[in-house]
């Protein structure tokens, strides 16, 4: 009974001719590998930012033990002031009222969030 393994197979490449067609094939193969590598990186980035359907909108897994570097809401307040001028406080109060109403209804009804599934797989 005879067995073959990869270690026993030898290949003589000393007289192998590398044609232009073979070079083009290697170049195309390398382009495909690079394209696949880029696509895998994009897929990994997309997967990192993906929110599972069983988590709600406010799922925050990142935590820190360090003190905040700026006052809470300071950046938002400056942005509102830039956008709305003197009416910023009024608009911010209206936004807060709508958000509180939404939160109250969500707490009362406990809705299941509809999963966001991409149409293109």
Automatic annotation (TrEMBL):
InterPro entries the record matches: GEMIN8
Name used for this protein in its record: Gem nuclear organelle associated protein 8
Lineage of origin: Eukaryota, Metazoa, Chordata, Craniata, Vertebrata
Highest taxon above the source species: Eukaryota
Pfam family, one: GEMIN8
Naturally occurring in which organism (per UniProt): Homo sapiens
